[in-house]
Amino acid sequence: MTYRAPVRDLIFTLTEVAGLDAVAATGAFPDFDADLTGAVLEAAAQFSEGVLAPLNRVGDQKGSLYANGAVTAAPGFADAYRQFAEGGWTGLSAPTHAGGQQLPKALELAAYETVHAANMAFGLCPMLSLAAIEALEAVGTEAQKTTYLTKLVSGEWTGAMVLTEPQAGSDLGALTATAVPNGDGTYSLTGQKIFVTWGDHDATDNIVHMVLARLPDAPPGPKGISLFLASKYRVKPDGSLGERNAFRPVGVEHKLGIHASPTCVMAYEGATAELVGQPNQGLAHMFVMMNAARLAVGVEGVGIAERAYQQALDYARERRQGRSVWTGEANAPIIDHPDVRRALSVMKAKIAAARALCLSTGVAADLAKHAATDEERRRWKSREDLFTPLAKAWSTDVGCDVASMGVQVHGGMGFIEETGAAQYYRDARIAPIYEGTNGIQAMDLVGRKLGQDGGQAARDLIADMKATLALLPRLYSGKPLERFATAIEAVQDATFWLLDRKAAADGAADVLAGADAYLTLMGDVVGGWMLAKGALAARATLDAGEGDPAWLEGRIALYEVYAANVLGHASSRLAAVGQGGDLLQRMSPDVLAG
Amino acid sequence: MTYRAPVRDLIFTLTEVAGLDAVAATGAFPDFDADLTGAVLEAAAQFSEGVLAPLNRVGDQKGSLYANGAVTAAPGFADAYRQFAEGGWTGLSAPTHAGGQQLPKALELAAYETVHAANMAFGLCPMLSLAAIEALEAVGTEAQKTTYLTKLVSGEWTGAMVLTEPQAGSDLGALTATAVPNGDGTYSLTGQKIFVTWGDHDATDNIVHMVLARLPDAPPGPKGISLFLASKYRVKPDGSLGERNAFRPVGVEHKLGIHASPTCVMAYEGATAELVGQPNQGLAHMFVMMNAARLAVGVEGVGIAERAYQQALDYARERRQGRSVWTGEANAPIIDHPDVRRALSVMKAKIAAARALCLSTGVAADLAKHAATDEERRRWKSREDLFTPLAKAWSTDVGCDVASMGVQVHGGMGFIEETGAAQYYRDARIAPIYEGTNGIQAMDLVGRKLGQDGGQAARDLIADMKATLALLPRLYSGKPLERFATAIEAVQDATFWLLDRKAAADGAADVLAGADAYLTLMGDVVGGWMLAKGALAARATLDAGEGDPAWLEGRIALYEVYAANVLGHASSRLAAVGQGGDLLQRMSPDVLAG
């Protein structure tokens, strides 16, 4: 049941696949070098394994507690959070001027994978602080940065994203919370919000709420939303805490999983708030937080998958049943049965692909800010934009899929809560839903990201994948090679078809009908690309006589497993990409109910 | 939250797809005719909707209770069970000589789909009685039939299957429970068993345990296992209940789902038992029960998927978010967004395919017993054998998949337990595990079923599918037609490759490495065949000017949805079928742990 942070995998993926060296080369991270990658990840591993993982079960069983208008964190969580903040983990990527360590986002994501894997419910708390940090850094005033940003970076306070209302979920434009000017530069915030993760707790003295609401004269819909900051306790000019603000939790949800993450219903009753950024630009500002959070949720998918995989692997090595066709052993460990070996191999391959996708998105985000030229920054920004919905949706689907396979490897024991596999299956299920459902991600991909610059980001990606394909005959021939070629063609065909339909006056429904399949296709193929790059790097290291040969050979086999079990599906996804809106219209509500 | 039994779908599937008429034509079911199908299903619908569905939530929340060596069923369950038995639902397919109604198995399965959908935890109780009935009917003595079978058929007592021990799950050959002759024809049964579904409860006065154990002189392994019957209370010669037998539950498992189904740890401490069937033939006898139970579990998958689908459909029709690209409505029901419509359409198509697969397996089972000639019975038996692992595994995968999509359609509300979608997701997860994991089903398919008569069953199936393909141009052209043709070819290629590898001295690991993918391929394609047959029948009914045109047109669209979203994947599964054992061996335990 212990968790072992995959430090070697994380370093390999960052350096050999995602291209962290290019981030270091920008010079934007003065304290960062290759040695630091290992040091940070080893320290993260130690904390996640030693402090967070042991609290995962009790957090599931006891959960957070709501009583009398306040939330108490699950047993041990408040203390663990304080250790986490003291260790500097809340400020890894924050700028040094705010007290952070100004390390690359990609490295922070890698470190946080271990946090989410060890304790997904815990990880949400700092994840949301990081999102608030991003927003304040981007659009906060100097005073807001002084007052709030530094406290979020130090981890003394935590942040919360406050968006959803009962009638406004995927469509935030429908929200009705209001903020009325008080005449002194502050606003009076009123409304009820739901799904506020870690909206209240007792782990820190104060909580900074980033709240979407409407000014009195705001236009209706998404263009009339502004971003506000409301602090649980008023902050006095000297930085000390004053009176309690007029908002409070009125309940926490009883959820399928992540029981230790309090999902609050919050009531704002004339709470004092500050405007953050420009009036009526709230959605745009929130998307600064949201994009970072989406990538972080993708990393959650990787983390929970890794945790589920490790437990299934341990079980398969210990549990003995039946004779192995390989070893001939009569009462063999089930890992020596081909079908179990297949399941574990596919799990490992998907995790490695999702990890590389997320960390590559992190590298793209770093380079989008810090690459040397405008042109390079623009290109990396396009890659980040294209990859963010993939990283979020594809990786969280992998999280659910691998967690489910993990249950299955355990057989009957997997269904027993004490075993632990079931918790991962329950916890993992939230990740495809929050921070924009995976359906919203697919619509974002085909609706916004694919169309930018006439599809240039997708064309660039296809060109990059073809460049890797050209190198692949060094390693593979026959099917493993053909499958990547066919898969790239499928991405190309699907992309061109969608761009065509996007350009057509009557094409909108066709594009949306194929959105989910296109996202899956892209994720499957980009994942294959990632593993192919890893295999090539492993070969180069082997050829140089360096590294652990068995481990490096494993990376080469991993691509082949993925090619047979995942890449093989790429071309078949074209059928669903192109199914068209007309067919779905024939499946009318009456037909569906009939 | 209400459940509406899909009576029209069930009747259509039984009569137009599965071929229930051929069962009626055998004359083996004297009281059965087409009118009775509707009457039985309407009555089942009424009971499932009115009595069982309302208990589903409380069963999940309260669960069954273990205390002081006895299990109390969840609130309301004991009373519901007694009504169920009084309604005659435990004896639908049992022979009239035992007090049953001697109706076709296929009709019983259709009726039970509504039971499992309404309340999966409840349905397990009669499902296991039906399995015990099958075994006693097949190999019980006349005295056993008189004493036990009639009480199981009437539902006055329930049955339990008692197989698993901690060290003997998938490999029952490792079990160690013993049965020592008492010298009076009875045996003294000793051992500890786990995963005994409804092993104890307070819904009936007595419970009949069908237990696998070893005789003192039995050979080791699977050939030394015998089947015993142990009754919770001794039965006196006059049929009344005597003293309590020496076995008892020592606990119930705390599970991910089906909380109202008590999963017992049972201790047998010199319990008095009778031998059922022949000594050392226990596994063969148990497989009579097991095969029926496997098909019934497939139907559970269909039922839980239907329930999850209905709730998601209701939510999608009520929940409003964002502008519809079809209707232009600003705050449209989410069913009018193409991606949600796609999800619901795919869910419906998969359910229809799984339902038809299971009911066709039921028809094959009926005809395997009752068709006119030896040759026909042999042929139907082969079809039943081939379809049973498909029905079990593919349908339960559909159950999990659809339940997960149901959560997703709900967005954030899906993760909240009060919504109900999460319960289906949790409940559904057991079905791929019990009665032989889906991995075991895949091994059964490629190991035993495929090889019978040199693959004749698969060849017959392929020929039948080609016959339907030849009719399909009446309805479809282009892609929907091509996809079925390609899919059949994929089944053919995969089958021949596997038969080849089976024949090779070094092929065993290759066959097992491809087992899971082959089962999925077969299920996907057979499912498509089922929907194609349904579409052809719908067209014929339309052409005859009969039926509800909109509903029948819906059946025609349903195949197209399936063709684009599921059948399209068939050929790509070949990659995984043929991945080979060598590749998986390269993914050694060390590589997997590295």
Describe this structure in words.
The structure is a homodimer of 594-residue chains. Chain A has 594 residues and is an alpha+beta fold. Chain A folds into three domains: 148 residues, Butyryl-Coa Dehydrogenase, subunit A, domain 1, CATH 1.10.540; 123 residues, Butyryl-CoA Dehydrogenase, subunit A, domain 2 (Beta Barrel); 150 residues. Chain A contains 21 helices and eleven strands. In chain A, a hairpin with a 5-residue loop joins strand 8 and strand 9. Chain A is globular. Chains A and B meet through helix 10, helix 11, helix 12, helix 13 and helix 16 of A and helix 10, helix 11, helix 12, helix 13 and helix 16 of B. Chains A, B: Belongs to the acyl-CoA dehydrogenase family. Chains A, B: Keywords: FAD, Flavoprotein, Oxidoreductase. Chains A, B: Pfam families: Acyl-CoA_dh_1, Acyl-CoA_dh_C, Acyl-CoA_dh_M, Acyl-CoA_dh_N.
Tally of individual helices of chain A? 21
Into which percent range does the helicity of residues of chain A fall? Answer: 55-70%
State the secondary-structure class of chain A: alpha+beta
Taking Cα atoms only, what radius of gyration of chain A do you get, to the nearest Å?
A: 24 Å
- Regarding quaternary structure, how should these chains be classified? homodimer
How many separate domains of chain A?
3
Name the shape of chain A in a single word.
globular
Mean pLDDT of chain A: 97
| Number of DSSP strand runs of chain A | 11
Low confidence ranges of chain A: none
Tell me which protein chains meet in the greatest interface and how many residues each side has. A-B, 106 and 106 residues
Most strands sheet of chain A: 7 strands, mixed
Classify the beta-strand content of chain A into a percent band: 5-15%
Terminal Cα span of chain A: 47 Å
